[in-house]
């Protein structure tokens, strides 16, 4: 990457591919000869329609999204979906199941409590969110309207490697994929709804992608605000009101770039390689660095670790920043360090981090 850029390990908003940023810069004030920036276009004009349609087509190609699913580009972040999901899928008296593997799953569960009868069927809290249960031991409610999971817990670095089979009568699995969206292939047909804030793997903040099986649309509770009603957005192809136009355009450029790299099979290979060298460095440090997460469910995207000598953490972060590796401080709720290594983090960034970690250890062990 360019000399004037840092390696940004932030959890989101996060680093974006340099070639995507450069492409956006090159057409910033005159998009493909139309004389306007994407920021200035009517969302109903032919130029923007071509942008949003291509973004959707490319995302469908990337994730192999079946015809029976709608793709929506919304606002409000993944947090708004915590409310939209129960409002659209349940009546107030309906039970729903939540599997809580970290802070985000917990937030989703708590928001759902306002709109239906949400239950936690498993929580990793007593293990400080370092585990995912074996699916056989889950006691799912057969009357639940859906089973909700957070596919990758951004703060705790816990990621589902396979998905539970929903045992509820409608067999609906709902997943918050904010922090591992488009980082690997996913069988969309296993899910009722997948939602994701864009600002980790696929674009800037301000866009939330919702992929929903079409037969689940149209049952919103009467109190549902129009902006949270999937039917309104699906009928209007995400153009009921003014969408986050520039963000959608940026996501489109990222989708194009992911396809050009060979699609999600290739992306997953790169992500595995990056995660492998980082976890290996932690595990082979003789306890100098430690990652608390169960090895079988360690995230390819967010790698939390602590220093045995915790008083060195501030020094670690300061020295790393001096070497142009930034945003390595762990979430305020868990402390320590966290390296987020989303799709756009180059292998060279992780290699540099690993070299730095080894050198830091040699100097401070
Ligand atoms: N879910 C997960 C897994 C996240 O990492 C985040 C992080 O920001 C959110 C939900 C909340 O997303 P937003 O800030 O877009 O509302």
TrEMBL record:
<dbReference type="GO" id="GO:0030170">
    <property type="term" value="F:pyridoxal phosphate binding"/>
</dbReference>
<dbReference type="InterPro" id="IPR000192">
    <property type="entry name" value="Aminotrans_V_dom"/>
</dbReference>
<dbReference type="InterPro" id="IPR015421">
    <property type="entry name" value="PyrdxlP-dep_Trfase_major"/>
</dbReference>
<keyword id="KW-0028">Amino-acid biosynthesis</keyword>
<keyword id="KW-0032">Aminotransferase</keyword>
<dbReference type="InterPro" id="IPR015424">
    <property type="entry name" value="PyrdxlP-dep_Trfase"/>
</dbReference>
<dbReference type="InterPro" id="IPR022278">
    <property type="entry name" value="Pser_aminoTfrase"/>
</dbReference>
<keyword id="KW-0663">Pyridoxal phosphate</keyword>
<dbReference type="GO" id="GO:0006564">
    <property type="term" value="P:L-serine biosynthetic process"/>
</dbReference>
<dbReference type="GO" id="GO:0005737">
    <property type="term" value="C:cytoplasm"/>
</dbReference>
<keyword id="KW-0808">Transferase</keyword>
<protein>
    <recommendedName>
        <fullName>Phosphoserine aminotransferase</fullName>
        <ecNumber>2.6.1.52</ecNumber>
    </recommendedName>
</protein>
<dbReference type="InterPro" id="IPR015422">
    <property type="entry name" value="PyrdxlP-dep_Trfase_small"/>
</dbReference>
<comment type="similarity">
    <text>Belongs to the class-V pyridoxal-phosphate-dependent aminotransferase family. SerC subfamily.</text>
</comment>
<comment type="pathway">
    <text>Amino-acid biosynthesis; L-serine biosynthesis; L-serine from 3-phospho-D-glycerate: step 2/3.</text>
</comment>
<feature type="domain" description="Aminotransferase class V">
    <location>
        <begin position="6"/>
        <end position="353"/>
    </location>
</feature>
<dbReference type="GO" id="GO:0004648">
    <property type="term" value="F:O-phospho-L-serine:2-oxoglutarate aminotransferase activity"/>
</dbReference>
<dbReference type="Pfam" id="PF00266">
    <property type="entry name" value="Aminotran_5"/>
</dbReference>
<dbReference type="InterPro" id="IPR020578">
    <property type="entry name" value="Aminotrans_V_PyrdxlP_BS"/>
</dbReference>
<keyword id="KW-0718">Serine biosynthesis</keyword>
